[in-house]
User: What shape does this take?
Amino acid sequence: MPRRRPGRSLAEPWPEGVARHVLPSTDSTNAHALRLAQTMAPQPAGPAWFLGLEQTAGRGRRARPWSSPRGNFHGTLLLHPKEPAEQVALRSFAAALALREAFVALTGLAEAFALKWPNDVLLNGGKVAGILLESSGAGAGSGAGVAHLAIGFGINLIAHPAPEHLEPGTLPAVSLLAETGLRVTPEAFLAALAPAFAHWESVFTTEGFAPLRAEWLAHAAKIGEPIRARTGKDTREGIFETIDAQGNLILKTAAGREAIPAADVFF
Assistant: This one.
């Protein structure tokens, strides 16, 4: 295994007060977590991780199918946030930072991993992991809030989709095993990911989005370079300048600077 660089320790304990459930098989860890959340009454339990060793109906952004072979990581963190919905969504950046941190802790290859807006992690320029946020219900006392948030992580630990199964123009998919020679079990990856997320969740809830934004930008792919952002049927081209305080992509186009809240990004 490559020599680890200085950083967060692999020996960090499991976060206090966070449950862990390992599912031999499930349709989708996000769906499982949100179904369970509906049964929590009158008060929800604390945060909980759900690791599916087999996932039969995984999905990605925009309800796209997600390849889920056994040996890859299919996991969900269930939270019960108190912030307004637009603030809750910023946890996607906490998830991305935690995911990258877990990869680096396990491999020591800090320069190999980058973050792609909005919810992907890259390894040597290929997609190795994706993140999906889904919510349900309305938070008590806040019509604009959410009662339950499922943060799903799909990670190509040992296998990745073939090129013919990917949307044209997207980045190639890669696996941790093929790119590094390291075979990491889903259980071992969760042991690194859970403490990393707990750290960034604490930063987010105590200091707000600003430190997450700064750290995310420090590891972002293609800052200052031309990209394409597709929103539905409309595609915009320009220079990826930054993300703003709301997590929007800031694109410098021929018509000026534009804030884009949601899009598929192509390099």
